[in-house]
């Protein structure tokens, strides 16, 4: 029998929250934090709900401007 996904409940809560708040992620930040904590607790692959869900640190790194690229003028 397959193991229960430990973070699925947070994924479902995120969907409900986003739907209830016109998909404004800022309104659901507390649930996103819970999901990040849950995903950090389990090894990669343990929770299918975490696949594609990035840690807050990785999100910030991806959003930060690339210091090695210079804009073309």
Automatic annotation (TrEMBL):
Signal peptide: which range, if any? Answer: none
Instruction: Tell me the compartments it is located in.
Output: Mitochondrion
Question: What InterPro entries does the entry give?
Answer: CMC4, Cys_alpha_HP_mot_SF
> Where does the source fall among the domains of life?
Eukaryota
Pfam families assigned: CMC4
Work out whether the entry's keyword set contains Mitochondrion.
Answer: yes
Q: Which cysteines are joined by disulfide bonds?
A: 7-38, 17-28, 39-50
Q: Which GO terms describe its cellular component?
A: mitochondrial intermembrane space
Report the principal subcellular site. Answer: mitochondrion
Keyword terms: Disulfide bond, Mitochondrion
Q: Of which family is this protein a member?
A: Belongs to the CMC4 family.
The protein's name: Cx9C motif-containing protein 4
Classification lineage: Eukaryota, Metazoa, Chordata, Craniata, Vertebrata
């Amino acid at each position: 029998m397959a193991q229960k996904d430990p973070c699925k409940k947070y994924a479902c809560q995120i969907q409900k929250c986003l739907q209830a708040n016109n998909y404004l992620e800022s309104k659901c930040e507390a649930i996103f934090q819970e999901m990040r904590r849950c995903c950090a607790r389990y090894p990669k692959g343990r929770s299918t709900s975490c696949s594609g869900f990035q840690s807050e640190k990785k999100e910030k790194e991806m959003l930060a401007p690339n210091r090695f690229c210079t804009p073309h003028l």
